[in-house]
Amino acid sequence: MSKKYLFFFIGLFLLTLILSGCDAALIDPKGMVGDKQRSLILTAFGLMLIVVIPVIVMTVLFAWRYRNTSQATYTPDWAHSSAIETVVWFIPFVIIAFLGWLTWQTSHSLDPHKPLESDIEPLEIQAVSLDWKWLFIYPEQGVATINEIAFPTDVPVHFKVTSGSVMNSFFIPSLGSQIYAMAGMDNDVHLIADEEGTYYGRSVHYSGAGFSGMTFDAIATSEKGFDDWVSKVEESSKSITFPEEYYTLAEPTRNHPVEYFSEVSPELYQQIVESFHGGSGGSQYGAREEQSSGHENGPMSAEAAE
Questions:
Q1: Residues 249, 130: Cα–Cα separation, whole Å
Q2: C-beta neighbour count of 116 within 10 angstroms
Q3: How far apart are CA 201 and CA 148, in angstroms?
Q4: Helices marked H in the chain — which ranges?
C-alpha cells in the first residue's frame, strides 16, 4: 500500500474516533423545544443534501467520463443548454425559498421568550451567571443553589436569566434554546423536559479563565422527586442576603462545587439586575464603597442641602 493511501486511512480512522466522542444531545433531545429544533436541523440538512449529493456524484462521473480517453465526445462549438440552466437555477431557488419559509416559521414558533402551551402552571427559576459558576434562585420555594437545578418533567420551566459579571450564555443542549445572560438585563427562556434524567448544562460564551468549569446539572424528575430535592436544599444552613453574602459568593472561583441555600432574599434577583443601573457597574467594590460612604457621611442636613 502506498504512503498516500496509508495516510488517508489513518486520517479516516482518527476522524471516526473524534466524531464518536461528539455530544449528541442536540440530535437526541429530551424536551419539546429541543425536538422541534432537531427537526429543523435535520430538515435543513436533508434539503441541502439534495444539492450536495448530486454535485459530488457528478464531480466523480464527469472526472471519469471526460478523462483523457477516446470515449469522450469533442464538441468545441457547444456553448449553452437551456435544460441545464433551468436545473442549475430552479432547484436551488426552490430549496432556498423553502428553507427561508421553514426557518421563518420555526424561529417565530420557537421564540425563547414565548411561553409554552400547557395547562400546567410554569415553574420559575432565576439564573445568574457569576465568575465562574451559576447561581439559581427558586423564588416560589425560597431556596437557591449553585451549579445544580431540578424541575419536574412535563412542567414548563420559565428561566429568568441575567449576569452578575460579564456576558455569558445559558444552555441545556438536551432541552434546546440557549439564551444570553447580560449584566443589568432581565432575559428569559421557556423550556420543558419530557423524560426524567440528569442533563448537562453550561455557559457557551467564553467568559475568562474559569470558563471550562462553568457547568451545572439539570435534574428532570417526578413531582415527588422534585419535592424531595427541595426538602434536601431546605436542610442547608446557608443563606444569601444582598449585598453582603451575595458579593462574597460572587467572588471568582473555579470548578465551584454544588451548594445549597435554604434562605434567600425574596428580591435577590431583581437587586442583582438593578445593581447595574445605579452607576457602580454592579461591582461588589463599588457597592461596598457606596455603602461605606453613606455610613460615614450620614444623612445630609438641611443646612448642607441649602
A1: 9
A2: 17
A3: 9
A4: 3-20, 32-65, 82-109, 223-234, 244-249, 268-274, 284-297, 302-305
CA distances in angstroms from 220 to 9, 200, 204, 279, listed in the order given: 42, 11, 21, 39
> Are 287 and 247 a contacting pair, CB within 8 Å?
yes
C-alpha cell, 282: 454592579
- CA dihedral sign of residues 139, 144, 149, 153: negative
pLDDT digits (tens, 9 = 90+) for 223-270: 999 999 999 999 999 999 888 889 999 999 999 999 999 999 889 999
82-109 and 32-65 are packed helices; what angle lies between their axes, rounded to 10 degrees? 170
pTM of the model: 0.76
Residues 54, 91: Cα–Cα separation, whole Å: 12
Reported residue count of the chain is: 306
Contact indicator for 159, 189 with CB cutoff of 8 Å? yes
pLDDT score, position 17? 57
List, as one string, the DSSP characters of 238-279. -EE-TTHHHHHHTS--SSPPPEEESEE-TTHHHHHHHTTSSS
Q: Where are the domains of the chain?
A: 24-65+84-110, 123-278
CATH number of 24-65+84-110: 1.10.287
Contact call for residues 276 and 243 (beta carbons, < 8 A): no
Q: Are strands 168-172 and 176-181 parallel, antiparallel or unpaired?
A: antiparallel
Cα separation, 261 vs 259, whole angstroms: 7
* 277: its cell numbers: 443601573
| Burial environment of residue 217 by CB neighbours within 10 A (0 to 12, 13 to 18, 19 or more) | middle
Topology of domain 123-278 in CATH is Immunoglobulin-like (2.60.40)
